[in-house]
Amino acid sequence: MGELKGRVTGIERDVSELKKTLKLETKVKLRDLTEVKDMMDEVCATIVILQLLNQIHNDFGRFKDHLLNKEYVESAAILSNVTNNYQKLSNSPFSEHQIVVALHMETISLKTRLCDCLDQMWYNCIVFHKTEPAATLTIVKDPQLLNMLEAMQVMDVLGWRLKSFAKLFKETLIDAIILDPSSDVTVSQAKQEVSLRVTSTDGKNLVKPPQEMFAQLQKALECIQKLFSRCRFDEDGESQSLMKMLGQIQFTSTIQSFSDHRTLIFVTDTRDDSLLKNLIQALLVLFLKAVK
C-alpha cells in the first residue's frame, strides 16, 4: 500500500512538472509568434512605404510632362495626389525622416512652379489698366482660361485669386464711378475679349443719367457672361440658384445729395442688398463655377 502511494505521488509530481513544462513552452511559442507578427507588420509597412515612394516618383515625372505641355488641370490633380501620398508617408512610424523632408521640399518646389504658370496666365487673361483719367478692365478668353481656373480650384488658390479680382474690380472701376458720377462708361466686345472702360471727366459736366450708366454696366455683365457662354456649370441646386440670380440682376440707382457732394447709391430690384455686392458675387460665381 505504501509502495502504491509512493508511485501515485511520483506520478503526480511528474504530471506537475509536465504541466510546468507545457506552460513554459506555450509562453515561448506565444512570444515567438508576437515577434514574428511584429516583424511581419514592419515588413508590410515597409512594402507600403516603398509603393508610396514609387507612386510619388512616377507622379513627379508625370507632373513635369503635363506642365511642359501646359496641361495645368492634369498637373494640379497629380500634385494633389502627391500631397495625399506624402501625408500617408509622413504619418507612418517606419518612414525615414530625411526622405520625408526631401519629398516635402520637392512638393513645395513643384507647387510653386505650377502656381507661377497659373499666375502668369491669369495676368495675361485678366488685365487691369489704370491711367488717368481712364481705367480699363479687359478679360481675354485665352484657350487655356477655363483650364487655368479649374487648376486654381484644384490647387485651392482660386478663392484667394477671385477675392483679389473683386477688390481690383471695385477699386479700379466701381469706385471711379462713385467718385465721379459723370464718368463715361464704355463697353467693347471682340470675339475673344470684353473690355469695360471708365473715363473720369473734369467734374464740370452734368451727371450722366443713371439709367444710361447702369444700362452700360448691365451690358458689361452680359458681355462677360456671354464670353463664358460655353462653360458647363454644376447641376446642384446651389449653382442653379446662383446662376439664376446672375441672370436676374438689373441695375437701378438713386442719387442723394449730401452737402455739395453727389453720392451714387446702388440698389437691386429685390432691394435686399447692394448692387456692388451682387455684381461682384455674380462675377465670382461666374468664374468659380466655370469648368472645362
UniProtKB/TrEMBL annotation:
Residues 142-249 form the Centromere/kinetochore protein zw10 middle domain. One of its GO terms (cellular component) is cytoplasm. Pfam families: Zw10_middle. InterPro entries: Zw10_middle. It comes from the Eukaryota. GO terms for biological process: endoplasmic reticulum to Golgi vesicle-mediated transport; mitotic spindle assembly checkpoint signaling. PANTHER family: CENTROMERE/KINETOCHORE PROTEIN ZW10, CENTROMERE_KINETOCHORE PROTEIN ZW10 HOMOLOG. This is Putative centromere/kinetochore protein zw10-like. It comes from Stichopus japonicus. The lineage of its organism: Eukaryota, Metazoa, Echinodermata, Eleutherozoa, Echinozoa.
